[in-house]
Amino acid sequence: MQQDTLAIHSEYQKESQTTMNIPILMSTAYNFGTTDFAASSFNLEQGTDNVYTRVGNPTNAMLEKRIAALEGGSGALATSSGMSSIFYSILNIAQAGDNIISSNQLYGGTITLFTQTLKKLGIKVKFFDVEKPEEIESLVDEDTKCVFFETISNPSIDLPDFEKIVQVANKFNLLTIVDNTVASPTLCQPLLLGVDIVVHSASKYINGQGSAIGGLIVERENLVEKIKGNFRYNFFNEPEPSYKGLIFSDCPATPILFTFRARMVLLRDTGGCLSPFNSWIFIQGLETLSIRMKKHSDNALKIALWLEEQEIVKKVNYPFLKSSKSYDLAKKYFKDGASGLISFEVENLETAKTILDNVKVFSIVANIGDSKSIINHSASTTHNQLSLEELEKAGISEGLIRLSIGIENCNDLISDLQQAFQLAKK
Predict the structure, then answer these.
(1) Residue 402: beta bridge partners?
(2) What DSSP assignment string belongs to 45-86?
(3) DSSP class of residue 113?
(4) N or C, fewer C-beta in 10 Å, the chain?
(5) What are the structural domains of the chain?
(6) Is the pLDDT confidence value at 100 over 80?
(7) C-alpha span between 247 and 238 (Å, rounded)
């Protein structure tokens, strides 16, 4: 089946459930029936379903199976937020004394996690320029655990060369982890481009209406082949004391090895699980994702082309503009558009503030991926915690404005920006 059909029908047995809509199973715990079955469940002999909702819930499982199907992966894990999905993907492979390599063009919250919180945990982060994947090679040492980057960087709107990054990472047998939030699997499937792990903030395009917080981790098919026996990933290859010496890379769950360990160790111990109600909301979002992403992308390209013609605008960042440095990569790796995220630069902070304070259809919101259009000043909000040097490395100037283009009528959005621009010129 194709993606848009999988998003609506995959994994759900409507014949046995009788309901067309996937039910919300709001239960903390489940009846084991017998003491032997209960014991076997806690020994990981029964999988992860129907043990305790912190580690598994039937509604959550449907969301996990569907996102895995859409990404072309083997397994997935739902978490409480996009940030928790990133955090768990790192903690699943790294500990104090280890390091990871990351693109320096990232969402501000991810940069803070990497430079502040991971630092306090003893995990070092080394940064490379996403336009220079060859820099990765000089950063690798025996304690390096992964290479992390974004499908579409937020808010600089840069694209990675997947092929080159994966090639360097594989040379050193390193896992690659990609945040696919902005593109969604509808526009880009990193796992099919050789990436090992994908993370999402489901709160964005998967949700589509800004109504719930959640995250997802998805792993590619046959990931065990890269992890098993790899000296970099001892967590998977050495006996796990909390499961009586179980070796994860040898257990029956190896087809979902990465997410299985994150679930049964990290989620079990730290509890960043997703509410079944939020999972249900995200399942509804997945059903219309392909339609919405096409509209977001179409609107965004029209507005990006219009922005290029405006005297007040110094620069426009959108991958499918022919003037974009990412244009060739967009044609190579993306299908049906490059999402709804645009950024553009005006002369200074005062001009940017005047534009933001005078839009009427757009809303000033620290979010993306909503059906409603959003405008934001990154340097003073989502990336406010960064130093001037870090802002520069992330491609963020004081005059940078980020737009998350919704699914309204495009002409209305252009008219709204136009009247705000006129006020900013006065």
Answers:
(1) 343, 376
(2) SS-STTSBTTT--HHHHHHHHHHHHHHT-SEEEEESSHHHHH
(3) I
(4) C
(5) 3-285 (3.40.640.10), 290-425 (3.90.1150.10)
(6) yes
(7) 6
